[in-house]
Please model this.
Amino acid sequence: MGSSPSNTANTTEEKVVSNGVNHTAPIATKGLAVDSASSPFKVFDFERRVPKPDDVFIRIHYCGICHSDIHQVKNEWHTSKYPMVPGHEITGVVEQVGSNVRKFRIGDHVGVGCMVDSCLHCNSCKKNFEQHCPDIAFTYSSTELDKVTPTYGGYSNFITVKEHFVCKVPKNLPLDAAAPLLCAGITTYSPLRQHNVGKNTRMGVIGLGGLGHMAVKFGVAMGAHVTVISTSESKRDDATKLGAKAFLVSKDAEQLKGAENSFDFIIDTVSAQHDVAAMINLLAFQGVYCMVGAPPKPAEIPSFVLLFKRPIITGSLIGGMKETQEMLDFCGKHEITCEIEKIEATPEQINVAYDRTLKSDVKYRFVIDILNAFK
Model:
């Protein structure tokens, strides 16, 4: 099994002083990439663009491994673009800023999440929902807004990003344990805020993995009564340590029967196939069921479940940039980070991490040490 949870920062990180640079030509960059859905990871040489006036150039220190990285690498969503450098849970240090940049300066601790550009003028963008922009540029397996230039993610040592899509990481949060906040963090924080989770909320969290453990931390910090719902009894102790007040084994029919009609809000973080209808039965009348996991096959929900319970079935996709910064500030205030296991940035280590992630054999997020890679 994976090692015990750790929020300890890499001591090397604290000694690094990031000096300013002045790149005037495309920046030689190294990453870890795949060429197809069946090919292994390899070291990949490419270039990052010279920072434009509104760009921030970042030396990447850490990048989390998200379950969606695995979906994308294997082309399970049928949208993958190769060669692919995955990674959208990025933290690092600013090394260069464009002439129009006002929010960041050299040496700042920053993060980059799932998107690196959008049109900024559609209705979604105007409402701070850039993640729903029709012209969004995702951090990897996508293109820039020109629809031609490929985007490459955080399994690499540098990245150039428009200022609007960069967030400040509070200095009291170690960059390694903060990296997964840029996806796992905002993915779970946003729906809790959307649905006003607070001290009177009876909240269920399905799955205690990378997303689920963050949902527990946020729910507890917001004052909710949190119950973890897991297939594995072995997760009970960790759920309690994270602050959950109760624990249900989803394979135990008697436990589920006893918990019917008991939750105001359930967040479903599971990316594997599972019985969604059985979980909806746990909701109170007109309760909210929010899906943030992305199983490869559609969920089956019988109409009678909807007719008799009148639940609100919804989903949530990461969060906009304003809300992502709000989430990071909330984490700084409450000293919330991810429970992580760090690995070296090698093809072999990433392959092992992917295999263990699929087996739920990590507590609770792998984070790649990019800072010490590609020497």
About this structure: Residues 11-183+339-369 form a domain with the Quinone Oxidoreductase; Chain A, domain 1 fold (CATH 3.90.180.10). The chain has a mean pLDDT of 93. The radius of gyration is 20 Å.
